[in-house]
């Protein structure tokens, strides 16, 4: 099938066999797995997974590709969900009671952050996630406090997942080649995230990083005073990127006790 990648869907199809096999090695699919792939495209990775796992699902928005996938894979081998991943209910995929869902995909760069937040809502039902993302986004996800890359995405995802940048993928591995490097990230949901209300944490973190050049006392003016910051173990003179995820959680809990 000759499919012209559609810019509005953020389509960059992985074509490098060596990179594909490296990704499969990192994922390490098992016969008992229930796996869902987001944005399978022309099925380069799907073909390497479908016969290695017990139950394979894909979520694809492009209707032409949905037709292609259904034509090339029998319904007994592959369940095709014609849907927008941002709206799709991943909890609707049936998984045996003793097992959890595994999620993989080459995520469109234009929706990567909102999609990661959407998936966080089902983290307790997920064994692991392996994604191809823009390298800069992965660096923000795994960044440590004190680095320029540390921000809202770092805090919110590190609260729910252990994450690791596995390896970098150059632009020429794709068709069409993107203008940036990509990277594979492994995300393993934490068995026991620090107790906190996710929506309230999001409010604190979003306000904290809305003015990165200011100190945290000024960033959170009207939400938290200096004494509350100190009580949460936060130096009021620090900038938001210098404050660890655990301290943002402590502050959120203190503000909403």
UniProtKB/TrEMBL annotation:
Specifically dimethylates two adjacent adenosines (A1518 and A1519) in the loop of a conserved hairpin near the 3'-end of 16S rRNA in the 30S particle. May play a critical role in biogenesis of 30S subunits. It comes from the Bacteria. It is an enzyme of class 2 (transferase). Pfam families: RrnaAD. It comes from Oxalicibacterium flavum. Its EC number is 2.1.1.182. Keywords: Cytoplasm, Methyltransferase, RNA-binding, rRNA processing, S-adenosyl-L-methionine, Transferase. The gene is rsmA. Its main location: cytoplasm. SMART domains: rADc. Belongs to the class I-like SAM-binding methyltransferase superfamily. rRNA adenine N(6)-methyltransferase family. RsmA subfamily. InterPro entries: KsgA/Erm, rRNA_Ade_diMease-like_C, rRNA_Ade_Mease_Trfase_CS, rRNA_Ade_methylase_Trfase_N, rRNA_adenine_dimethylase, SAM-dependent_MTases_sf. It is found in: Cytoplasm. S-adenosyl-L-methionine binds at residues 12, 14, 39, 60, 84, 106. One of its GO terms (cellular component) is cytosol. This is Ribosomal RNA small subunit methyltransferase A. HAMAP family: 16SrRNA_methyltr_A. It catalyses: adenosine(1518)/adenosine(1519) in 16S rRNA + 4 S-adenosyl-L-methionine = N(6)-dimethyladenosine(1518)/N(6)-dimethyladenosine(1519) in 16S rRNA + 4 S-adenosyl-L-homocysteine + 4 H(+). PANTHER family: DIMETHYLADENOSINE TRANSFERASE, DIMETHYLADENOSINE TRANSFERASE-RELATED. Residues 19-191 form the Ribosomal RNA adenine methylase transferase N-terminal domain. One of its GO terms (molecular function) is RNA binding.
């Amino acid at each position: 099938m000759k499919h012209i990648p559609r810019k509005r869907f953020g389509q960059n199809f992985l074509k490098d066999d060596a990179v594909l096999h490296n990704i499969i090695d990192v994922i390490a699919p098992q016969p008992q797995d229930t796996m869902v792939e987001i944005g399978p495209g022309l099925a380069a990775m799907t073909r390497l997974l479908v016969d290695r796992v017990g139950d394979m699902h894909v979520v694809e928005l492009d209707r032409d590709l949905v037709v292609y996938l259904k034509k090339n894979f029998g319904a007994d081998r592959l369940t095709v969900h014609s849907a927008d991943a941002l709206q799709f209910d991943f909890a609707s995929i049936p998984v045996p009671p003793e097992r959890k869902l595994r999620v993989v995909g080459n995520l469109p760069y234009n929706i990567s952050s909102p999609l990661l937040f959407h998936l966080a809502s089902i983290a307790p039902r997920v064994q692991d996630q392996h994604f191809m993302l823009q390298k800069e986004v992965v660096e923000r996800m795994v960044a440590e406090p004190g680095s320029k890359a540390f921000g809202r995405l770092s805090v919110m995802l590190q609260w729910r997942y252990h994450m690791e940048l596995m390896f970098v993928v150059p632009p020429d591995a794709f068709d069409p080649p993107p203008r940036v490097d990509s990277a594979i990230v492994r995300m393993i949901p934490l068995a026991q995230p620090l107790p906190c209300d996710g929506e309230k944490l999001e409010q604190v973190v979003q306000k904290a990083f809305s003015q990165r050049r200011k100190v945290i006392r000024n960033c959170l003016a009207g939400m938290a005073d200096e004494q509350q910051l100190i009580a949460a173990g936060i130096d009021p003179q620090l900038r938001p990127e210098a404050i660890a995820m655990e301290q943002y959680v402590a502050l959120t809990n203190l503000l909403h006790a």
